[in-house]
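Q: What changes when coenzyme A is included in the input?
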Amino acid sequence: MVADTSQAGGLLIERATAQDLDRILRIEQESFSVPWTRKMFEVELNQNPFGHMYVARPSGGHEQEGGFIGYVCFWVVFEEFRLMTLAVEPSARRRGFGRALLRHAMAQGRAQGATRALLEVRASNAAALRLYVQEGFQQGAVRMRYYTNPVEDAVLMELEPMP
Ligand SMILES: CC(C)(COP(=O)(O)OP(=O)(O)OC[C@H]1O[C@@H](n2cnc3c(N)ncnc32)[C@H](O)[C@@H]1OP(=O)(O)O)[C@@H](O)C(=O)NCCC(=O)NCCS
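A: The predicted holo structure follows.
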């Protein structure tokens, strides 16, 4: 049985709620050139039976205590775990929070029966690509000119079996 929340290294990861949406949107807008809209997050939170969203809240005396510094959204569709979005507030990056969110999400996916993890990432996103490779993902096909603003290829990545 995998706990729905996880706490380690001064970080509490728990399910996102409607109260978290304003801050999620702010981090999203700071993190992506084509950010998700409020409506898209609301669908994941309230309507998508396959969708899951978690936020990472610093705990234990951290300067950002009370708020949260990152979030992850993923789908679990039968045996498939699909990472939909992952972001950490710019001022809190490079402290292990992105990795902790990804690992928490994948543990939830495994607990729900997923055996294969999939994601897609901009070809120029060196930080995310390195994180995913470190976590065991392998590069698959490239979708040419998949993204807009700027137009860019998408790299598909896969991890099977999930650890
Ligand atoms: C990708 C992202 C979530 C990583 O979050 P983070 O909390 O900074 O990452 P972590 O501190 O957990 O770092 C984990 C690993 O990611 C890689 N990484 C993270 N930032 C990096 C950077 N600026 N340059 C190179 N590698 C980087 C490293 O391999 C790092 O491991 P290391 O510190 O042991 O070398 C964060 O950079 C972000 O929010 N980016 C904008 C949104 C985004 O691109 N999301 C992914 C969409 S697919």
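Observations recorded in class: The mean pLDDT is 93.
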